[in-house]
Amino acid sequence: MATKVVLQFGKGRSKSITKRSNKYLEEALYNRLFKRGSSEISVRQHLNHFIKTSKRVFKWEVGLTLKKLRDRKLYYPALKLSETMAKRSMVKTVSDQSIHLDLVAKTRGIEEAENYFVDLPETSKNHLCYGTLLNCYCKELMTEKAEALMGKMKELNLSLTSMPYNSLMTLYTKTDRPGKIPAVIQEMKANNVMPDSYTYNVWMRALAAVNDISGVDRVIEEMKRDGRVAADWTTYSNLASIYVDAGLFEKAETALIELEKRNAFRDLSAFQFLITLYGRIGNLREVYRIWRSLRLAFPKTANISYLNIIQVLVNLKDLPGAEKCFREWESSCSNYDIRIVNALIGAYAREGQLEKAEELKERARRRGGKPNSKTWEIFLDYYLKHDDMKLAVDCIANAISTGRGNGDKWVPSSDMIGTLMGHFEQGKDVDGAESFLKIVKKSVDDLGKEVFESLIRTYAAAGRTSLMMRCRLKMENVELCEANKKLLDEICVE
Description:
GO terms for molecular function: mRNA binding. PPR repeats lie at residues 126-160, 196-230, 337-371. By secondary structure, this protein is mainly α. Helix content is 68%, strand content 1%. It has helices at residues 29-33, 40-53, 59-71, 75-87, 94-108, 110-119, 127-139, 143-155, 162-174, 181-190, 197-209, 213-226, 233-245, 249-261, 268-280, 284-297, 303-315, 319-332, 338-350, 354-366, 373-385, 389-402, 414-426, 430-440, 449-462, 469-475, 482-491, and strands at residues 6-8, 14-16. Strands 1-2 form a two-stranded antiparallel sheet. A hairpin with a 5-residue loop joins strand 1 (6-8) and strand 2 (14-16).
């Protein structure tokens, strides 16, 4: 029997999917797109199929689907859906245009977003679309453009809420200019702009950044006195984190008690913050208590929750507890999440239990948990600390071959490259150095002067020559110091 899906539209109005004609999609659009999970590949396939069918859907379905896609950071399919609906003559409200503007910025960049904004009808250029463009500038840390646009919004006498001010304050926080935030707060007060909980959180963070903890206390008291904005769990999570950073553990515990009181809707993120922050103050008993509460609230416990508790227990040196949670997760997981495996592998490696770390890596591989670049980083760190450079090079090769989860290249740090080149130089191992650089060149475009100078010293120490070295240096645009120029003359002789 079909499930009846109804959405209310104000007083006395509703839409029922079960009552619509066969011109429409037979199920809610968001159900169709997420039919086989929320991976981008699956969602795109279902979206493309929907577009090809030319089936109709209700506008509210599109709005709700876009929200779900954005919540999951699936911006490309969200933009494609938004554009498809526009082509099908679905009328966009200013709010829809604001969402579309944000999607363009996230997928095609600021310049394309600016072009979309410019092409909007003048009637659409209200506080919503201006505010979205401002937020885009702030996310990209484009301070001059953000401040200029904020000035334009004031000049146009747009009705400003706390949102554009919050965007600007977040920008100042991310660009290490917390000193500018109090002036923004004063402007909000002067213009009777009502703050929200986010405003107070950013304000407290700004004061904490300049070590003004008494100022943080004054802000939370002002928030209580004002009464218009109720402090929610995020307020006390923010406050507890500030106190933990300042080493004020008693105050942090008091804030965490308030956080827990305000988690009436049993928000998963609130449980996660409680576990993390109790872990940071070393209160293992409370960590376990909150973990039990989380398990009761979410019997089908998410991978991210297991990852969080195992990381916290590892940091608290409770390896048996971490292993117990891992076995519990492993016995019932449907997706063998390599991140959770890495948390325990890392603990074993730091404790010098290499055999256990290797055994767990292989067990994960058998269960479908393919090692990622982080896995290889853990083993790489172990081998570097134990001067096993051959296996360290193997780990670098594996990490480069694997790449990062988002498709980006994995790039070894300059310090890491320098350490290994120093090892080859000390051992006069030209072949080892050249083999290593051949691996590194797969992910590093510019090796840099220091790497080639080390290579030249290795050749010189080994008494080896290289007729191609000058050509290599020219191709890499490397200019040597005087001492290494002399060594270059020595190794380039025929």
